[in-house]
Design a protein that fits this description.
mainly alpha, about 0% strand
Length: about 350
């Protein structure tokens, strides 16, 4: 696995995870000094002190007393360099890979349950300019957040009155619920929200390990009769968008959030299911900020761009707050959408 992604130039995280690699090390030694300060078996506590852990365990080598073997010190150093993730990168990648197999890349995977065409059937050709399903969700957010979009809001409300449309949206939500909880199960059932957010943050920063299987599938789909120029273009696409876990459309974050918002309004579930929907929204909203700050793919609050490191910490806290406060979460979504749509000033003008 390459250390850096040649497409984005970012460091790839993936080989070392706290749960799989670091926790067994910390459990194996007795270090009263560290244990008296924080819980060395708790990932969030260790992540908050990752730089101090590296300084004492790796650089100075005086914790635990007598130091760790060089191989274990190297693992701790790599874990800190990767951003102190809870799990190895391939566990995080697996979620986004499966989401793609049902949505954007379903044609390459022949997923047994492909709900997107069901939704497209009722949203395609019913929206202006041939807008696709996800664009309909995106426009739902716009129509709710901007007063001048009331006419389009009425059109969307009309679509949502169609039971087939409602059923299609809820089928997609059922799939998302199963994927999210299946990949990020909590210790007592339900969702491990922190791991879900951590994975999404890695996705937003383009630091997940590459997926060679998806790259091969896309390359193998190139028509045999393609010209050399066409083949080169499609191979570049395979390397750029199919091999790495990156998004081709900046509003995708808001599409994800809007879909969860629609599902919340269409269906009242048990508390766990509703919390998962709000978790989807919170993760997508905060993920958009991380994406736009670290990859400059869209406009967000100016305050977030001043100190990227501090933004990471604030988004982790904001995601938890928003997960439990739906009105505040919706307001944040609408405000960020409006910021995103605000034209950038022309430096030449």
């Amino acid at each position: 696995m390459p250390e850096y992604c040649p497409i984005t130039g970012t460091h790839i995280t993936g080989r070392v995870g706290f749960t799989e690699d670091i926790l067994p090390i910390f459990r194996s030694f007795d270090c009263p000094v560290m244990r008296n300060i924080f819980d060395v078996t708790d990932w969030e506590s260790c992540r908050q002190r990752a730089s101090q852990i590296k300084q004492r365990v790796v650089d100075r080598g005086d914790m635990p007393p007598g130091g760790l073997p060089q191989q274990q010190r190297a693992l701790v150093a790599e874990w800190v360099k990767d951003g102190a993730p809870k799990y190895r990168g391939n566990k995080y990648s697996a979620y986004f890979l499966e989401v793609d197999s049902y949505t954007e890349y379903f044609s390459y995977y022949n997923a047994p349950e492909n709900y997107m065409p069901t939704v497209l059937e009722y949203f395609d050709n019913k929206m202006e300019d041939g807008a696709k399903t996800i664009n309909a969700w995106w426009r739902w957010v716009l129509s709710k957040g901007l007063p001048e979009e009331t006419q389009e809001r009425a059109v969307l409300d009309g679509f949502l009155a169609n039971q087939q449309v409602r059923d299609a949206i809820l089928r997609v939500q059922s799939l998302m619920q199963r994927l999210i909880v299946g990949h990020f199960p909590g210790p007592a059932g339900g969702l491990d929200f922190v791991a879900f957010y951590d994975a999404t943050e890695c996705f937003a920063r383009d630091i997940l390990p590459p997926d060679e299987d998806r790259r091969s599938r896309v390359r193998n789909s190139i028509p045999a009769g393609a010209s050399a120029e066409q083949r080169q273009e499609l191979e570049t696409y395979a390397d750029c968008y199919a091999r790495y876990h990156r998004m081709d459309s900046e509003p995708m974050w808001f599409n994800w959030a809007a879909h969860a918002d629609l599902a919340l309004m269409l269906e009242t579930d048990a508390d766990d299911a509703n919390r998962t929907k709000q978790a989807q929204m919170a993760v997508a909203v905060c993920g958009s900020v991380v994406d736009f700050v670290f990859r400059q793919r869209g406009r967000t609050r100016d305050a977030y761009t001043v100190n990227p490191g501090r933004t990471l910490l604030s988004m982790r806290s904001a995601a938890k707050r928003h997960r439990d406060n739906l009105p505040a979460l919706r307001q944040e979504l609408y405000e960020l959408v409006q910021l995103y749509r605000t034209p950038q000033p022309n430096p030449i003008a």
